[in-house]
Amino acid sequence: MDRARTNPQRGAVLLAVVGIVMVLSLAVLAVFALQANQRTLEMSASGPAQMAVIDHALAEFVARHRRLPCPANGTIRSGLVNAGTEAINLSTGQCVPATQINGVVPWVTLSLSEDQARDAWNQRISYRVQPALASNLLTLMNMSWCDPAGSTNGVTGAANACSPAPCSGNACMHPNNYLYGKGLQVQDGNGNWLNQPAPAWAGQPAAPPVSTGAPYVLVMHGANSVGAYDANGILHGGSAGSSELPNRNGLALTGATVFIDRAPVAVSGASYFDDILSHPAITTVLERARLAARSPH
Length: 297
What we know:
Blueprint: H1 2-45, H2 47-65, E1 72-73, E2 88-89, E3 94-95, E4 103-104, E5 126-129, H3 175-179, E6 185-187, E7 193-195, E8 216-220, E9 258-260, E10 276-278, H4 282-288
Parallel strand pairs: 6-9
Antiparallel strand pairs: 1-4, 2-3, 5-8, 6-7, 8-10
């Protein structure tokens, strides 16, 4: 009889121990999850500051060369020849390849360290630029001879440049003429335009009267790293949210390309978004490079 009473007691104690272990295990997992989430938040928070460093380096490049650099080839492994160097055909003025299908920040060309061109998850930051604005033959990133007093009825087009010689009054090109058709396109998560050329580079409808196009777009691909090149030149695949799809590297840049910049969405699935972008307007970059249009007078 004593043994019969003891067995159920032992079973109850065992169940209690198992329950305690399970509770403790869940608590430990919860702590790990919170720490991981905190780490992700901290790493994401550093993104804008790092982007600002690259934005500054790009503006300084424009100040010296009157153009933007072409992207570096993201498929080249770190330490090899041409890793981090802009891929441009100097005789034609075109980026190589023209589609910028593997474009990343050209850290060597910008005099940055390789770490400055990689995100907090150690992936290379993608970089796309409107081709004409990177041409070493056109050198279009210069509005210093554009003048608001200039004619607005001149020839318009993506290859417009402000007068290379001193001009005055109506003989100068108006800034709006210069901006016509220039820049890349960026939308928010609701389809609203954040950057758009006038008219849109690909003839998109409802273009604004004055270009707000971005001369370049930088993309940090976030914690999931989908669409990013790593230091070995390997493109990371995987599942991406629908808003992340156009931001991935490994895609050809065309006039119809529209990048997406929206608030982070941590829910897994089609709504997930953890990319961090920088896409200033052309006028902003030229102001930073001290090559903006002259003030009205």
